Amino acid sequence: MSESTTERRFVAEDVETELKQFLEKSTKTSWESDTDLFADGGVSSMFAMELVVHIERSFGLAIEGPDLRIDNFRTVNDMTALVLRLTGSDAGE
Amino acid sequence: MEDPAARLAVLGAGVMGVSITTLALGQGVPVLLVETDPQKRAGARARIDHELRTAQLMGARPDVPQGHLTISDSLVEAHDVDAVIEAVTEDAELKSKALADAAAATGAGTALVTNTSSIPVDELASRLPHPERLVGVHFMNPSYLIRTVEVIRGARTGEQTVEAVGRVLAALDRRPVFVGDGPGFVTSRVLHRMINDAARVVQEGRATAEDVDTLMQDCLGHRTGPLRTADLIGLDNLVDSLWVLHRRTGDEGCRPCDLLLQKVRDGEHGRKNGRGFYTYPGAVA
Ligand SMILES: NC(=O)c1ccc[n+]([C@@H]2O[C@H](COP(=O)([O-])OP(=O)(O)OC[C@H]3O[C@@H](n4cnc5c(N)ncnc54)[C@H](O)[C@@H]3O)[C@@H](O)[C@H]2O)c1
Protein backbone atom coordinates (compact mmCIF):
# COMPACT_ATOMS: atom_id res chain seq x y z
CA MET A 1 0.00 0.00 0.00
CA SER A 2 2.69 2.47 0.95
CA GLU A 3 5.37 1.03 -1.30
CA SER A 4 5.00 3.80 -3.79
CA THR A 5 8.75 4.08 -4.17
CA THR A 6 8.97 0.65 -5.81
CA GLU A 7 5.66 0.79 -7.65
CA ARG A 8 5.58 1.98 -11.19
CA ARG A 9 3.30 4.95 -11.56
CA PHE A 10 1.39 5.66 -14.70
CA VAL A 11 -0.43 8.59 -16.22
CA ALA A 12 -3.89 8.12 -17.64
CA GLU A 13 -2.93 9.07 -21.18
CA ASP A 14 -0.21 6.44 -21.45
CA VAL A 15 -2.47 3.74 -20.06
CA GLU A 16 -5.20 4.69 -22.50
CA THR A 17 -2.86 4.68 -25.45
CA GLU A 18 -1.48 1.28 -24.53
CA LEU A 19 -4.95 -0.20 -24.07
CA LYS A 20 -6.25 1.23 -27.32
CA GLN A 21 -3.29 -0.12 -29.23
CA PHE A 22 -3.83 -3.59 -27.80
CA LEU A 23 -7.55 -3.48 -28.52
CA GLU A 24 -7.06 -2.27 -32.04
CA LYS A 25 -4.49 -4.94 -32.76
CA SER A 26 -6.63 -7.72 -31.26
CA THR A 27 -10.05 -6.74 -32.57
CA LYS A 28 -9.01 -4.92 -35.75
CA THR A 29 -11.35 -2.12 -34.71
CA SER A 30 -10.59 1.16 -33.03
CA TRP A 31 -12.47 1.96 -29.84
CA GLU A 32 -13.49 5.23 -28.22
CA SER A 33 -12.55 5.60 -24.56
CA ASP A 34 -16.16 5.34 -23.44
CA THR A 35 -17.48 2.64 -25.78
CA ASP A 36 -18.72 -0.53 -24.07
CA LEU A 37 -16.62 -3.30 -25.63
CA PHE A 38 -19.07 -5.97 -24.62
CA ALA A 39 -22.30 -4.35 -25.77
CA ASP A 40 -23.89 -5.67 -28.98
CA GLY A 41 -21.66 -8.75 -28.94
CA GLY A 42 -18.62 -6.53 -29.54
CA VAL A 43 -16.01 -8.80 -28.06
CA SER A 44 -16.33 -12.20 -26.42
CA SER A 45 -15.99 -13.30 -22.82
CA MET A 46 -12.92 -15.30 -23.82
CA PHE A 47 -11.34 -12.10 -25.09
CA ALA A 48 -12.25 -10.38 -21.83
CA MET A 49 -9.95 -12.72 -19.94
CA GLU A 50 -7.14 -12.12 -22.45
CA LEU A 51 -7.59 -8.45 -21.76
CA VAL A 52 -7.22 -9.04 -18.03
CA VAL A 53 -4.02 -11.03 -18.52
CA HIS A 54 -2.67 -8.39 -20.89
CA ILE A 55 -3.31 -5.61 -18.39
CA GLU A 56 -1.70 -7.59 -15.58
CA ARG A 57 1.43 -8.20 -17.63
CA SER A 58 1.72 -4.73 -19.13
CA PHE A 59 1.31 -2.85 -15.88
CA GLY A 60 2.80 -5.42 -13.49
CA LEU A 61 -0.22 -5.94 -11.32
CA ALA A 62 -2.59 -8.65 -10.12
CA ILE A 63 -6.32 -8.18 -10.50
CA GLU A 64 -8.09 -10.23 -7.88
CA GLY A 65 -11.15 -10.57 -5.69
CA PRO A 66 -13.91 -8.03 -6.24
CA ASP A 67 -11.80 -6.14 -8.80
CA LEU A 68 -12.03 -9.11 -11.14
CA ARG A 69 -15.43 -8.32 -12.58
CA ILE A 70 -16.47 -7.41 -16.07
CA ASP A 71 -17.70 -3.93 -15.15
CA ASN A 72 -14.08 -2.90 -14.57
CA PHE A 73 -13.24 -3.77 -18.17
CA ARG A 74 -16.20 -2.45 -20.14
CA THR A 75 -14.56 0.65 -21.51
CA VAL A 76 -11.03 1.98 -21.93
CA ASN A 77 -11.91 4.55 -19.26
CA ASP A 78 -12.96 1.82 -16.80
CA MET A 79 -9.74 -0.10 -17.37
CA THR A 80 -7.60 3.00 -17.10
CA ALA A 81 -9.20 3.91 -13.77
CA LEU A 82 -8.55 0.39 -12.50
CA VAL A 83 -4.89 0.44 -13.56
CA LEU A 84 -4.33 3.85 -11.97
CA ARG A 85 -6.00 2.74 -8.76
CA LEU A 86 -4.18 -0.60 -8.46
CA THR A 87 -0.79 0.96 -9.17
CA GLY A 88 -1.40 3.83 -6.77
CA SER A 89 -0.98 6.23 -9.66
CA ASP A 90 -4.21 8.02 -8.88
CA ALA A 91 -3.17 9.20 -5.43
CA GLY A 92 -0.96 11.85 -3.88
CA GLU A 93 -0.47 14.26 -6.74
CA MET B 1 -15.35 -29.49 1.81
CA GLU B 2 -17.14 -31.51 4.49
CA ASP B 3 -20.18 -33.47 3.41
CA PRO B 4 -20.16 -32.20 -0.13
CA ALA B 5 -23.44 -32.47 -1.95
CA ALA B 6 -21.80 -34.22 -4.85
CA ARG B 7 -18.43 -35.65 -5.81
CA LEU B 8 -17.23 -36.01 -9.34
CA ALA B 9 -14.48 -37.65 -11.30
CA VAL B 10 -13.66 -36.16 -14.70
CA LEU B 11 -11.71 -38.11 -17.30
CA GLY B 12 -9.48 -36.09 -19.62
CA ALA B 13 -7.90 -32.69 -18.94
CA GLY B 14 -8.36 -31.31 -22.43
CA VAL B 15 -10.56 -28.39 -23.40
CA MET B 16 -13.72 -29.94 -21.95
CA GLY B 17 -12.28 -31.76 -18.95
CA VAL B 18 -10.79 -28.47 -17.79
CA SER B 19 -13.98 -26.57 -18.52
CA ILE B 20 -16.25 -29.04 -16.69
CA THR B 21 -13.83 -29.22 -13.76
CA THR B 22 -13.86 -25.42 -13.56
CA LEU B 23 -17.64 -25.45 -13.50
CA ALA B 24 -17.74 -28.02 -10.69
CA LEU B 25 -15.06 -26.41 -8.51
CA GLY B 26 -16.73 -23.04 -8.91
CA GLN B 27 -19.99 -24.55 -7.66
CA GLY B 28 -18.17 -26.00 -4.63
CA VAL B 29 -18.17 -29.57 -5.94
CA PRO B 30 -14.92 -31.52 -5.40
CA VAL B 31 -13.34 -33.15 -8.47
CA LEU B 32 -10.91 -35.95 -9.12
CA LEU B 33 -9.47 -35.13 -12.54
CA VAL B 34 -7.86 -38.02 -14.40
CA GLU B 35 -5.53 -37.45 -17.36
CA THR B 36 -3.19 -39.98 -18.96
CA ASP B 37 -0.88 -37.49 -20.71
CA PRO B 38 1.74 -36.29 -18.17
CA GLN B 39 2.21 -32.96 -19.92
CA LYS B 40 -1.51 -32.22 -19.87
CA ARG B 41 -1.63 -33.28 -16.24
CA ALA B 42 1.18 -30.91 -15.33
CA GLY B 43 -0.53 -27.94 -16.93
CA ALA B 44 -4.06 -28.70 -15.80
CA ARG B 45 -4.09 -26.80 -12.53
CA ALA B 46 -2.88 -23.56 -14.12
CA ARG B 47 -5.46 -23.85 -16.89
CA ILE B 48 -8.23 -24.48 -14.37
CA ASP B 49 -7.10 -21.50 -12.28
CA HIS B 50 -7.22 -19.35 -15.41
CA GLU B 51 -10.74 -20.54 -16.23
CA LEU B 52 -11.89 -20.06 -12.64
CA ARG B 53 -10.79 -16.46 -13.04
CA THR B 54 -12.70 -16.21 -16.31
CA ALA B 55 -15.79 -17.55 -14.56
CA GLN B 56 -15.39 -14.98 -11.81
CA LEU B 57 -14.80 -12.17 -14.30
CA MET B 58 -18.04 -13.06 -16.04
CA GLY B 59 -20.02 -13.26 -12.80
CA ALA B 60 -20.50 -17.01 -13.21
CA ARG B 61 -19.26 -18.06 -9.78
CA PRO B 62 -21.65 -18.29 -6.87
CA ASP B 63 -20.42 -17.15 -3.48
CA VAL B 64 -19.44 -20.61 -2.21
CA PRO B 65 -16.06 -22.03 -1.19
CA GLN B 66 -14.24 -23.57 -4.14
CA GLY B 67 -14.37 -27.36 -4.43
CA HIS B 68 -11.21 -29.36 -3.81
CA LEU B 69 -9.25 -30.52 -6.86
CA THR B 70 -7.22 -33.72 -7.06
CA ILE B 71 -5.33 -34.54 -10.25
CA SER B 72 -4.35 -38.11 -10.97
CA ASP B 73 -3.26 -40.49 -13.70
CA SER B 74 -5.89 -43.08 -12.81
CA LEU B 75 -9.24 -43.52 -11.14
CA VAL B 76 -7.98 -44.43 -7.70
CA GLU B 77 -10.15 -43.59 -4.72
CA ALA B 78 -13.10 -42.90 -6.96
CA HIS B 79 -15.30 -45.59 -5.52
CA ASP B 80 -17.84 -43.27 -3.95
CA VAL B 81 -18.10 -40.53 -6.56
CA ASP B 82 -21.62 -39.71 -7.71
CA ALA B 83 -20.63 -39.59 -11.33
CA VAL B 84 -17.68 -40.09 -13.62
CA ILE B 85 -17.78 -37.62 -16.48
CA GLU B 86 -15.84 -38.93 -19.45
CA ALA B 87 -14.31 -36.13 -21.58
CA VAL B 88 -11.51 -37.94 -23.39
CA THR B 89 -10.63 -37.68 -27.08
CA GLU B 90 -13.54 -38.18 -29.52
CA ASP B 91 -12.70 -41.78 -30.42
CA ALA B 92 -15.13 -44.62 -29.79
CA GLU B 93 -12.39 -47.14 -28.93
CA LEU B 94 -10.68 -44.85 -26.45
CA LYS B 95 -13.96 -43.89 -24.86
CA SER B 96 -15.18 -47.47 -24.53
CA LYS B 97 -11.97 -48.43 -22.80
CA ALA B 98 -12.05 -45.41 -20.48
CA LEU B 99 -15.70 -46.05 -19.60
CA ALA B 100 -15.11 -49.75 -18.95
CA ASP B 101 -12.23 -48.85 -16.61
CA ALA B 102 -14.46 -46.29 -14.90
CA ALA B 103 -17.23 -48.88 -14.49
CA ALA B 104 -14.78 -51.25 -12.84
CA ALA B 105 -13.27 -48.61 -10.54
CA THR B 106 -16.57 -47.34 -9.14
CA GLY B 107 -19.60 -48.71 -7.34
CA ALA B 108 -22.86 -49.63 -9.06
CA GLY B 109 -24.41 -46.39 -7.81
CA THR B 110 -21.96 -44.18 -9.70
CA ALA B 111 -23.44 -42.79 -12.90
CA LEU B 112 -21.22 -42.95 -15.96
CA VAL B 113 -21.56 -39.86 -18.08
CA THR B 114 -20.13 -39.37 -21.55
CA ASN B 115 -19.52 -35.89 -22.87
CA THR B 116 -19.11 -37.13 -26.44
CA SER B 117 -20.10 -34.61 -29.11
CA SER B 118 -21.32 -37.13 -31.62
CA ILE B 119 -20.96 -40.82 -30.77
CA PRO B 120 -24.37 -42.36 -30.02
CA VAL B 121 -24.69 -43.14 -26.32
CA ASP B 122 -26.09 -46.60 -26.95
CA GLU B 123 -23.11 -47.46 -29.14
CA LEU B 124 -20.81 -46.73 -26.19
CA ALA B 125 -23.18 -48.41 -23.72
CA SER B 126 -23.23 -51.61 -25.74
CA ARG B 127 -19.61 -52.26 -24.79
CA LEU B 128 -20.20 -51.92 -21.04
CA PRO B 129 -21.07 -54.77 -18.67
CA HIS B 130 -23.89 -52.60 -17.27
CA PRO B 131 -25.13 -50.41 -20.12
CA GLU B 132 -27.85 -48.94 -17.90
CA ARG B 133 -25.19 -46.97 -16.03
CA LEU B 134 -24.33 -44.77 -19.04
CA VAL B 135 -25.98 -41.49 -19.98
CA GLY B 136 -24.87 -38.67 -22.28
CA VAL B 137 -24.48 -35.13 -20.99
CA HIS B 138 -23.22 -32.78 -23.64
CA PHE B 139 -21.74 -29.87 -21.73
CA MET B 140 -21.08 -26.86 -23.89
CA ASN B 141 -17.84 -24.92 -24.00
CA PRO B 142 -17.20 -23.04 -21.75
CA SER B 143 -19.30 -25.16 -19.43
CA TYR B 144 -19.31 -22.57 -16.65
CA LEU B 145 -20.77 -19.86 -18.87
CA ILE B 146 -23.42 -21.88 -20.72
CA ARG B 147 -26.08 -23.07 -18.36
CA THR B 148 -28.02 -25.35 -20.66
CA VAL B 149 -26.79 -28.89 -21.31
CA GLU B 150 -28.02 -31.48 -23.78
CA VAL B 151 -28.84 -34.73 -21.98
CA ILE B 152 -29.03 -37.89 -24.06
CA ARG B 153 -30.84 -40.89 -22.80
CA GLY B 154 -29.66 -43.99 -24.62
CA ALA B 155 -32.00 -46.90 -25.33
CA ARG B 156 -30.54 -48.74 -22.34
CA THR B 157 -29.94 -45.84 -19.95
CA GLY B 158 -31.43 -46.77 -16.55
CA GLU B 159 -33.88 -44.72 -14.52
CA GLN B 160 -31.48 -44.68 -11.56
CA THR B 161 -28.78 -43.23 -13.78
CA VAL B 162 -31.09 -40.49 -15.04
CA GLU B 163 -31.99 -39.62 -11.46
CA ALA B 164 -28.35 -39.60 -10.34
CA VAL B 165 -27.34 -37.36 -13.19
CA GLY B 166 -30.25 -35.05 -12.41
CA ARG B 167 -28.84 -34.57 -8.90
CA VAL B 168 -25.37 -33.90 -10.29
CA LEU B 169 -26.70 -31.32 -12.76
CA ALA B 170 -28.64 -29.64 -9.95
CA ALA B 171 -25.43 -29.41 -7.90
CA LEU B 172 -23.74 -27.88 -10.95
CA ASP B 173 -26.65 -25.50 -11.51
CA ARG B 174 -27.10 -26.67 -15.13
CA ARG B 175 -30.42 -26.88 -16.91
CA PRO B 176 -30.94 -30.10 -18.88
CA VAL B 177 -32.76 -30.47 -22.17
CA PHE B 178 -33.46 -34.16 -22.81
CA VAL B 179 -33.08 -35.36 -26.40
CA GLY B 180 -33.06 -38.66 -28.25
CA ASP B 181 -29.95 -40.66 -29.07
CA GLY B 182 -28.25 -40.70 -32.48
CA PRO B 183 -25.12 -39.35 -34.20
CA GLY B 184 -24.46 -35.79 -33.03
CA PHE B 185 -27.73 -35.66 -31.04
CA VAL B 186 -29.15 -32.19 -31.74
CA THR B 187 -26.40 -29.64 -31.26
CA SER B 188 -23.47 -31.32 -33.04
CA ARG B 189 -25.69 -32.62 -35.81
CA VAL B 190 -26.65 -29.06 -36.65
CA LEU B 191 -23.60 -27.04 -35.58
CA HIS B 192 -20.75 -29.20 -36.85
CA ARG B 193 -22.15 -29.44 -40.33
CA MET B 194 -22.68 -25.69 -40.40
CA ILE B 195 -19.12 -25.04 -39.28
CA ASN B 196 -17.89 -27.40 -41.99
CA ASP B 197 -19.84 -25.38 -44.57
CA ALA B 198 -18.49 -22.12 -43.18
CA ALA B 199 -14.93 -23.46 -43.51
CA ARG B 200 -15.69 -24.61 -47.05
CA VAL B 201 -16.76 -21.10 -48.03
CA VAL B 202 -13.38 -19.82 -46.81
CA GLN B 203 -11.62 -22.68 -48.60
CA GLU B 204 -13.31 -21.68 -51.85
CA GLY B 205 -12.03 -18.15 -51.41
CA ARG B 206 -15.47 -16.57 -51.33
CA ALA B 207 -15.02 -14.82 -48.00
CA THR B 208 -12.53 -14.46 -45.18
CA ALA B 209 -13.16 -16.19 -41.86
CA GLU B 210 -13.80 -12.80 -40.33
CA ASP B 211 -16.40 -11.89 -42.94
CA VAL B 212 -18.18 -15.22 -42.55
CA ASP B 213 -18.38 -14.71 -38.80
CA THR B 214 -19.44 -11.09 -39.10
CA LEU B 215 -22.30 -12.02 -41.43
CA MET B 216 -23.43 -14.90 -39.26
CA GLN B 217 -23.26 -12.73 -36.15
CA ASP B 218 -24.62 -9.42 -37.36
CA CYS B 219 -27.21 -10.67 -39.85
CA LEU B 220 -28.23 -13.98 -38.35
CA GLY B 221 -27.66 -13.50 -34.65
CA HIS B 222 -25.11 -16.28 -34.15
CA ARG B 223 -23.44 -15.34 -30.89
CA THR B 224 -19.79 -15.87 -31.80
CA GLY B 225 -19.77 -16.83 -35.47
CA PRO B 226 -19.18 -20.41 -36.68
CA LEU B 227 -15.43 -20.13 -37.26
CA ARG B 228 -14.66 -18.44 -33.97
CA THR B 229 -16.75 -21.22 -32.44
CA ALA B 230 -14.67 -23.77 -34.35
CA ASP B 231 -11.50 -22.31 -32.85
CA LEU B 232 -13.04 -22.47 -29.40
CA ILE B 233 -14.08 -26.11 -29.86
CA GLY B 234 -10.66 -27.11 -31.21
CA LEU B 235 -10.25 -27.97 -34.90
CA ASP B 236 -8.79 -31.41 -34.13
CA ASN B 237 -11.85 -32.31 -32.07
CA LEU B 238 -14.13 -30.83 -34.69
CA VAL B 239 -12.60 -33.01 -37.42
CA ASP B 240 -12.88 -36.11 -35.20
CA SER B 241 -16.54 -35.34 -34.57
CA LEU B 242 -17.25 -34.69 -38.24
CA TRP B 243 -15.76 -38.09 -39.12
CA VAL B 244 -17.95 -39.71 -36.45
CA LEU B 245 -20.98 -38.03 -38.02
CA HIS B 246 -19.96 -38.82 -41.59
CA ARG B 247 -19.33 -42.50 -40.88
CA ARG B 248 -22.58 -42.96 -39.04
CA THR B 249 -24.91 -40.92 -41.25
CA GLY B 250 -23.29 -41.07 -44.69
CA ASP B 251 -24.03 -37.36 -44.97
CA GLU B 252 -21.40 -35.87 -47.30
CA GLY B 253 -21.96 -32.48 -45.69
CA CYS B 254 -20.27 -33.92 -42.63
CA ARG B 255 -17.10 -35.00 -44.44
CA PRO B 256 -14.49 -32.62 -43.01
CA CYS B 257 -13.48 -30.13 -45.70
CA ASP B 258 -9.89 -29.87 -46.94
CA LEU B 259 -9.21 -26.60 -45.17
CA LEU B 260 -10.10 -28.09 -41.79
CA LEU B 261 -7.99 -31.18 -42.47
CA GLN B 262 -5.08 -29.02 -43.60
CA LYS B 263 -5.24 -26.86 -40.49
CA VAL B 264 -5.20 -29.91 -38.25
CA ARG B 265 -2.23 -31.33 -40.18
CA ASP B 266 -0.44 -28.01 -39.74
CA GLY B 267 -1.04 -28.13 -36.00
CA GLU B 268 -3.45 -25.22 -36.07
CA HIS B 269 -5.89 -26.50 -33.48
CA GLY B 270 -7.60 -23.22 -32.63
CA ARG B 271 -7.67 -21.29 -29.40
CA LYS B 272 -6.17 -24.15 -27.40
CA ASN B 273 -2.77 -23.74 -29.05
CA GLY B 274 -2.99 -20.14 -30.18
CA ARG B 275 -3.83 -20.49 -33.88
CA GLY B 276 -6.77 -21.68 -35.98
CA PHE B 277 -8.94 -19.50 -38.19
CA TYR B 278 -7.73 -16.67 -35.94
CA THR B 279 -4.63 -16.16 -33.82
CA TYR B 280 -4.72 -15.82 -30.05
CA PRO B 281 -1.57 -14.13 -28.81
CA GLY B 282 -2.92 -13.86 -25.28
CA ALA B 283 -4.14 -17.45 -25.03
CA VAL B 284 -2.76 -19.55 -22.20
CA ALA B 285 -1.22 -22.62 -23.81
N1 LIG C 1 -14.21 -28.98 -27.45
C1 LIG C 1 -15.50 -28.76 -27.31
O1 LIG C 1 -15.95 -27.63 -27.49
C2 LIG C 1 -16.42 -29.88 -26.93
C3 LIG C 1 -17.73 -29.56 -26.53
C4 LIG C 1 -18.58 -30.58 -26.11
C5 LIG C 1 -18.12 -31.89 -26.11
N2 LIG C 1 -16.84 -32.18 -26.52
C6 LIG C 1 -16.40 -33.58 -26.44
O2 LIG C 1 -15.65 -33.73 -25.24
C7 LIG C 1 -14.63 -34.71 -25.41
C8 LIG C 1 -13.27 -34.10 -25.11
O3 LIG C 1 -13.03 -33.08 -26.07
P1 LIG C 1 -11.88 -32.00 -25.89
O4 LIG C 1 -12.17 -30.92 -26.83
O5 LIG C 1 -11.70 -31.69 -24.46
O6 LIG C 1 -10.62 -32.83 -26.40
P2 LIG C 1 -9.10 -32.61 -26.10
O7 LIG C 1 -8.34 -33.26 -27.18
O8 LIG C 1 -8.84 -31.18 -25.79
O9 LIG C 1 -8.86 -33.43 -24.73
C9 LIG C 1 -8.99 -34.81 -24.60
C10 LIG C 1 -8.07 -35.24 -23.46
O10 LIG C 1 -8.34 -36.59 -23.08
C11 LIG C 1 -7.10 -37.18 -22.69
N3 LIG C 1 -7.27 -38.64 -22.67
C12 LIG C 1 -7.28 -39.51 -23.70
N4 LIG C 1 -7.53 -40.76 -23.25
C13 LIG C 1 -7.69 -40.68 -21.91
C14 LIG C 1 -8.00 -41.62 -20.88
N5 LIG C 1 -8.19 -42.91 -21.15
N6 LIG C 1 -8.10 -41.18 -19.61
C15 LIG C 1 -7.91 -39.86 -19.32
N7 LIG C 1 -7.62 -38.92 -20.25
C16 LIG C 1 -7.53 -39.32 -21.53
C17 LIG C 1 -6.13 -36.64 -23.72
O11 LIG C 1 -4.79 -36.78 -23.29
C18 LIG C 1 -6.59 -35.19 -23.82
O12 LIG C 1 -5.92 -34.37 -22.90
C19 LIG C 1 -14.77 -35.22 -26.82
O13 LIG C 1 -15.60 -36.33 -26.84
C20 LIG C 1 -15.45 -34.06 -27.53
O14 LIG C 1 -16.12 -34.46 -28.68
C21 LIG C 1 -15.98 -31.20 -26.92
Automatic annotation (TrEMBL), chain A:
Residues 9-87 form the Carrier domain. InterPro entries: ACP-like_sf (IPR036736), PP-bd_ACP (IPR009081). It comes from the Bacteria. Gene3D superfamilies: ACP-like (1.10.1200.10). This is Carrier domain-containing protein. It comes from Streptomyces albospinus. The lineage of its organism: Bacteria, Bacillati, Actinomycetota, Actinomycetes, Kitasatosporales.
From TrEMBL, chain B:
It comes from the Bacteria. Pathway: Lipid metabolism; butanoate metabolism. Keywords: Oxidoreductase. Residues 184-280 form the 3-hydroxyacyl-CoA dehydrogenase C-terminal domain. Gene3D superfamilies: N-(1-d-carboxylethyl)-l-norvaline Dehydrogenase, domain 2, NAD(P)-binding Rossmann-like Domain. InterPro entries: 3-OHacyl-CoA_DH, 3-OHacyl-CoA_DH_NAD-bd, 3HC_DH_C, 6-PGluconate_DH-like_C_sf, 6PGD_dom2, NAD(P)-bd_dom_sf. SUPFAM superfamilies: 6-phosphogluconate dehydrogenase C-terminal domain-like (SSF48179), NAD(P)-binding Rossmann-fold domains (SSF51735). Residues 8-181 form the 3-hydroxyacyl-CoA dehydrogenase NAD binding domain. PANTHER family: 3-HYDROXYACYL-COA DEHYDROGENASE FAMILY PROTEIN, 3-HYDROXYBUTYRYL-COA DEHYDROGENASE. Belongs to the 3-hydroxyacyl-CoA dehydrogenase family. This is 3-hydroxybutyryl-CoA dehydrogenase. It comes from Streptomyces albospinus. The gene is paaH.
